[in-house]
Amino acid sequence: MTTPMVEARAVCKHYAGVEVLKGVDLTVNRGEVTCLIGPSGSGKSTLLRCINHLEKHDAGELLVDGQLVGYEARDGKLYERSDKQICVERSRIGMVFQRFNLFQHLTVLDNVTIGQVKVKNVAPDAAATRARELLARVGLEAKEKNYPSQLSGGQQQRVAIARALAMEPKLMLFDEPTSALDPELVGEVLDVMKDLARSGMTMIVVTHEMGFAREVADTVYFLDRGIIEESGDPRQVLSAPSSERLKNFLSKVL
Amino acid sequence: MTSDGGGAVKVVPVRHVGRWIAGAVMIVVVAMLVHTLLSKVPNGQTSCHTVNGLRTCHNVVNWRFSWNIVFHYFTTSEILHGLLLTVELTILAMIIGIVLGITIAVMRLSPNRLLSSTAWSYTWFFRGTPVYVQLLFWFNISAIYQSMSIGLPFLNVAFLHINTVALFTPFRAALIGLGLNEGAYMSEIARSGLIAVDEGQIEAASSLGMTRGQTLRLVVLPQAMRVIIPPTGNEVISMLKTTSLASAISVVEVLGAAQNIYAANYEVMPLLITASIWYLIITTVLSIGQFYLERHFARGAQRTPPPTPIARLRHDLKGIGSKFRTPRPAMTREVST
Ligand SMILES: Nc1ncnc2c1ncn2[C@@H]1O[C@H](COP(=O)(O)OP(=O)(O)OP(=O)(O)O)[C@@H](O)[C@H]1O
Ligand SMILES: [Mg+2]
Questions:
Q1: Which residues does chain B have within 8 Å of residue A102's beta carbon, measured at their own beta carbons?
Q2: In chain B, which residues have their Cβ closer than 8 Å to the Cβ of A55?
Q3: Pocket (CB within 6 angstroms of ligand 1)
Q4: Kind of pairing, strands B54-63 and B40-51?
Q5: A97 contacts B200? CB cut-off 8 A
Q6: Are the beta carbons of A72 and A79 closer than 8 angstroms?
Q7: Does B198 touch chain A (CB under 8 A)?
Q8: What is the pLDDT of residues B28-43, one digit of tens each?
Q9: Distance CA B315, CA B299 (A)
Q10: Distance from the CA of A202 to the CA of which of A182, B151, B169, B187 falls in 20 to 30 A?
């Protein structure tokens, strides 16, 4: 039995007195797609940020790829990880943001090569070759010389996915990747994500696209006010929710 | 008259009476300026000569602005040497200022309170005292430090001894004074640039595994440049003129050279004009450079970069050409109907 890619046990996180995560339990198996749904402010982004070491959780246990996030257990003691180690961990986890966050001063190609060259020390030629492959995969090989501001939102998000994939991540995190897009552009991004899911990538997707969750997810988690209210098979959870809160939430988003 | 079959619409343009009056006033003012700049006045001497046994005398006139003297000294080696020193001081002091300014801005934004308050104090001190006083201070520093040593304070441990008199030549005192002062102003400019970069850019960089240093160098600073460059251009131009203060601590830059010359020949005004024209020329060159630098760092920020002045001129000329060309078909049509 292999260890899960992500395992959260009673993870808590608070900001200046506000408790955002109040004991989250979650398991993401390798090669599976997990969708995280829930109302605004429920802590979905915070959970993703904890998994990616962008925030430190205060209590509970969070393991990524069998290793504790932020700490190292040696001889029965916990040691805080150095900044360097945390950077290495982050480089192995891809993250896609709601507002794309492409580097505005770099061309599409440079956006996809910079992480490879500067973080993974890949030779520039090899990085460019790989970047072109990935751009072709997301259907943007013709745009490599453009700057992000010259692309549509959907195109920018596809570049952002290619940028994350260029690091050869073991896990991809998506934080509402289609929420900032015009409705007609949502499909092109979801198609890329579906293709990625089929290729066996382990993914955690925060989304309001219930159709996507139903079609692609192996497991759906419903996060509400910092705790997992309900989880399970998407057909089960989305079609026959048992908790009142989830019923309420679904009636609003659908 | 309405448009005739897809041709250009013919309209009587609105008359801008105000603009015409303002234009006329400006032409008169400019003409007055040119007139006085080119005017000639008697210089108090008379010159007489005899032609055909007839002796005639007349007053000698000179340019009021002594243009002959202005241009006589314009390219003398003294002035050109001074000019070189002015340019050197400007460039070196700006390099010190920019490097220092960015460092201080980064320190200022650091979560480390000790670093950020040190940075704040630096800016407070150097912006709060006149640069002229600072120059005099560095020029006279050997009066209180005959020598300096770098080591640990209170412990009598020194790594390096420096002879202050030899170190603080007038040029170096000016350079240090101008550079340190500029650092304070540049730090505020750099800070506004760093703050202007979207938080999401930093998050994206960290999520790729970049260290804080890499994020700053590869992502934040290049984007901050777009905000930093335009005011830095102004700083360079301002620095060019501030270097003239160095003449007060016996640096013979272009103003100092002009002063040395007029101390000997009393031609004060012409030599001040000579120096001023050189300042204007360099400022013009710097402004052109600034335009292209801004254009370079704006890449990615705009969908289409602004046209260069040359491209715009070409476009305007084409526009004028087409204005003269378009009416012609309309006229022939009128003749035929
Ligand atoms: N840096 C912070 N400081 C203080 N409070 C924060 C911070 N970040 C998030 N919060 C708070 O934590 C709560 C959860 O935020 P989070 O961004 O995780 O919600 P979310 O589920 O992603 O919501 P949305 O769907 O709107 O993105 C919110 O109430 C938010 O105000
Ligand atoms: Mg969120």
A1: 204
A2: none
A3: A 15-16, 18, 20, 38, 40-46
A4: antiparallel
A5: yes
A6: yes
A7: yes
A8: 999 999 998 988 888 7
A9: 22
A10: A182
User: A224 vs chain B: nearest CA distance in angstroms?
Assistant: 25
* pLDDT value for B322: 59
Protein residue closest via CA to atom 22 of ligand 1: A45
How does residue B306 score in pLDDT terms, banded at 50, 70 and 90? low
Long-range (24+ apart) CB contacts under 8 A made by B125-133 are B125/B184, B126/B180, B126/B181, B126/B183, B126/B184, B127/B184, B127/B185, B127/B188, B131/B177, B131/B178, B131/B181, B131/B242, B131/B245, B132/B245, B132/B248
Q: How far is CA B234 from CA B186, B277, B287, in A?
A: 11, 19, 9
B9 secondary structure, DSSP code: P
Query: What integer pLDDT is reported at residue B329 of this predicted model?
Result: 45
The residues pairing with B54 across neighbouring beta strands, listed in sequence order, are: B51
Total residue length of chain B: 337
Question: How far is Cα B1 from Cα B41, in angstroms, rounded to an integer?
Answer: 59
Q: State the Cα–Cα distance between residues A77 and A48, nearest whole angstrom.
A: 26
DSSP type of residue A31: T
Of the residues B194, B202, B207, the best mutation for testing chain A's interface (the one with the most A CB atoms within 10 Å of its CB) is B207
Over residues A16-42, the mean pLDDT reads: 94
What the block records as the tokens of A96 is: 């896609």
| B281 token code pair | 């020329």
CA of A38 to the centre of ligand 2 (A): 10
In this structure, are residues A204 and A6 in contact, taking their beta carbons and an 8 Å threshold?
yes
Residue matched to tokens 């090899």 = A126
Sole residue written with tokens 């006083």: B133
Cα B269 vs. chain centroid, distance in angstroms?
23
Residue whose C-alpha is closest to residue A23's, from A79, A61, A80: A61
Q: Which token pair is A251? A: 């009636």
Asked whether A12 and A57 are in contact (CB, 8 A), the reply is: yes
Residues A29, A159, A148, B225, Cα dihedral to 10°: 60
CB contact under 8 A, B218 and A52: no
